[in-house]
Amino acid sequence: MPLAPKSLARGVALAAAFTLATATAAAQGFPTKPVTLLVPYPAGGLSDVIARLVERPLAKSAGQMVIVDNLGGAGGSIAAQKVLGAPADGHLVYQGSPNELILAPLAMQSVKYKSEDWRMVQIIGSFPMAVIARKGLEANTIDELVALARKAEAAGKPLTYGSVGIGSFYHVVGEHFAQTIGTKMTHIPYKGGAPMLQDMGGNLVDVAFFVVDARLPGFVEKGMFKVLATMAQPGKPEARFLDAYPSINDSKSVKDFAFDTWTGYFVRKDTPEAVVSALNRQLATAMADPEARKRLDELGGRVPPMMSVAEAQKEYERQTARFRAIARSIKLEAQ
What we know:
The protein has 335 residues and is of the alpha/beta class. It has helices spanning 5-28, 46-62, 77-84, 98-107, 142-154, 169-180, 193-201, 216-221, 273-286, 290-299, 309-329, and strands at 35-39, 66-70, 92-96, 118-133, 160-163, 186-189, 207-211, 226-230, 260-268. It folds into two domains: 8-126 and 262-329, D-Maltodextrin-Binding Protein, domain 2 (3-Layer(aba) Sandwich), CATH 3.40.190; 128-260, D-Maltodextrin-Binding Protein, domain 2 (3-Layer(aba) Sandwich).
């Protein structure tokens, strides 16, 4: 026998209240078990190192054990799918960047999720980027690079630029640079940063638009490459090891070309708001830890100002819109 309208409405209201009460109760005690930081790359790399410097202070602020789990493959999408397939309770957290959650869905047909499937909780670290070139390249400034790139294309031998793969952050920025200066450059994709830098050291690839860390002075001294400019945002402080270099935005040829790369923590979009808020506060507390900040600084990164839940969401939406616009302008197609 069907329920009367009033009984049906009362039932729906009770079910909604129960769901809300359950979510609130879970959030108030969050976390109720160990929290896993899922890193979408193998152990030993920069992403793994970042997670491990967050591990201890986050465990302290959350009052639970924190576990770092490495699950690489498919541009970070294997780890991403694991998080999306897990309960939306905040205990499995994805460590991501623009590469995995904004660009991978645009560049890889195998990626079945989209940026809107995620909620950014907090950005915990950012690293500077620079325009680097092989030692023998006949350009030492951005203006000289622009002139050389135009001359090379006119001669039918475009300059080459390296990245860690089609659709990667570094590929998109490189293609955006070529479009900005109105010329063509040839993209050379690599399976990682190490082989790309090795070829640059051998004068086999001309330039790269790449993240740099505290090892930069040593690489330059060894002659692996030279630095033409940073990609610093005007007025934004940079790492000390970049003090000797101008910004690309100081050149006559290129303006408003500011990029850095960041690492943040993400959960499923349907994670309860109270859980997201709790994790947001716990990460902010963790990144105030002097030892964590010192270790990130030693790596060449910095801890940005911590954001509220609303600010984090707004920033994620801004970054998503920016990179989607660039992807459209360079006609990035899923492979």
